[in-house]
Amino acid sequence: MTEIPAAWQAQIEIDPAFYDIDPMEIVWHGHYVKYFEVVRCALLDQIDYNYYAMKHSGYAWPIVDLHVRYVQPLRFRQKVRVAAKIVEWEHRLRILYRVTDAATDRKLTTGHTVQVAVDMRNGELQFETPAVLRQRLGVM
Description:
Elements: E1 9-14, H1 31-46, H2 51-57, E2 59-60, E3 63-70, E4 80-88, E5 93-101, E6 107-115, E7 118-119, H3 131-137
Antiparallel strand pairs: 1-4, 2-7, 3-6, 4-5, 5-6
């Protein structure tokens, strides 16, 4: 397996807020998707192809698949690291996520998203990754 370039990876730290907690006193499952979005935005900024750049390039990149595996619950004020890395880009954009406890590095959650390019002019799905993303990834 080839090593993932550093530019294709990002990490943030999150301190779950009280409003993210459910009646069972753990982070509500839907907020994990929000945490994935926050790190995904950091990752896309890092490769200079954030959602504004996507729109400007003429492509929408809707998420067509989302998977979350809850290993251990997140709790109020538990500092966690959320990491993302691009693992597939040729026909779709597949990003893996890993949530770990910031103090112990214990795995808490994993997941992935799949996004596809859609030409905003005609709504057509692109079966190959547009040149603009390949350029931003440095794989022309």
